[in-house]
Amino acid sequence: MNDELPVIGKDALGRVIKDWSFKPWWGVDRKEIEWYPKINYDKCIGCGVCFITCANRIVFDWDEEKKKPVVARPYNCVVACTTCKTLCPVDALEFPEKEYIQNIIKKHKILVKAKETLKNHNLI
Ligand code: SF4
Ligand code: SF4
Q: Is 104 in the pocket of ligand 2 (CB under 6 A)?
């Protein structure tokens, strides 16, 4: 599936960008899930750690004029990932509250799906 994702260009570091928004999350259309970082530019110091770290999904572009990251491909973000937020030295990245994703887990019966997967592999 990942090999079949459309390639949509290269970023400022020459990394190949794929459109991960086509890949469903637990069978849910990725574009229905509002999980991605928002940058607080009042705090961001333009260190580049988020932009460089998100090397697989390439959620960020780099604004060469402002010398700051931009959230260019929000639906490329891994649902529930907060790596860039954890690494940001000035806490400039914001994500939805945990309750938001827990409600999606309930709505789409993801615990049932997880149990079925474990059963199908004779793991429970
Ligand atoms: S949360 Fe993870 S996938 Fe999403 S932008 Fe940050 S590092 Fe990339
Ligand atoms: S890690 Fe934080 S401070 Fe550094 S560029 Fe990203 S948002 Fe800005």
A: no
Task: Tell me the one-letter amino acid at 32.
Answer: E
How far apart (Å, rounded) are the C-alpha atoms in residues 45 and 102?
32
Ligand 2 pocket mutation, candidates 36, 39, 60, 86, criterion most atoms within 8 A of CB: 39
Q: Confidence class of residue 1 from pLDDT cuts 50, 70 and 90?
A: low
The CATH fold assigned to 2-95 is: Alpha-Beta Plaits (3.30.70)
Domain ranges of the chain: 2-95
Predicted confidence at residue 3, as pLDDT, reads 76
Residues in the chain: 124
The Cα 73–Cα 21 span in angstroms is 8
Which ligand is closest to the CA of 87, given by its number? Answer: 2
How big is the chain by its Cα radius of gyration, in Å? 16
Amino acid letter, residue 28 = V
Residue nearest (by alpha carbon) to ligand 1 atom 6: 84
Residue with tokens 């086509």: 22
pTM attached to this predicted model = 0.95
